[in-house]
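name: query_chain
kind: protein
chains: 1
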Amino acid sequence: MQFRNIFAVACILAGLAISAFSQSVTPSPSPTPKASKRNQQRLVANNKDAKVAPTAEALAESAIIIYGGLGGRKTLDQIRKTSIERGKMSLVNAQGQTEQVNYVSAAVRGENLDKEKIRIDQEYPSIKYSLVYSDAKTFGLYNDAIFTPRGDATQQFENRIFHGLEALLRYKENGSTVELAGHDKIMGVDFYFIDVTDKAGRKTRFYISSKTYRVMMIDYEDNGVKYRRKFYDYNYAQGTLVPFRSTLTANDKIVEDSEVLTVTYGQKIDENLFKAG
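structure:
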């Protein structure tokens, strides 16, 4: 995502009716069960007591266990078959102006990220439109009419998919390679650096806390621009770990501040939402 809006599209004509989602959303994240906290502390303690340095795969698997609420990959697959998320974003456009955007995103989980179905409906102060990723293609919807987003807008949208947390949590399903790239302290926090490279050659660096095994930052590069996304406000939603706020910088300048208002998993979603016509 560059200095343009993350989801800005050049081929927009005038007003859109955002598709209504009939499903309800969870009003608030669920608390972490006490037993899970004890198990998490035990997992961290066991890893700290290990006499050999952890491998990249061991660290990735530890993170997956934590994000799955100690249920790991199996829980994530069961709970997150579908997702509906509502939130808001502050975006910095190409002119350096900040715009407020409300969004609703819907997703149907695929065998891997290539087979994912994702739609985000966005409401700017003056326009509404949708971006859809389905069948490994991205297209736009404006007033129920299909349009082809500009190339950089498509890239920005897909960066959010392929350079996000799911790139780590589903690295095996995606056929990605993982490498341990270092271990150091940043601002007093001890991190392991894990590089995840998918089959298309997209590389993302994950900064995993050695204390909690949560991802606190990710780095990636696109067209010479260095991006960093930071995650905040972690809490549990339906037993799985979710960051409810994130920020994105491009070459050290902030271009996005996103907040998740509500998120729910497992509700039925009409797959016609992801079809081009």
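note: Residues 34-49 form the longest helix (16 residues).
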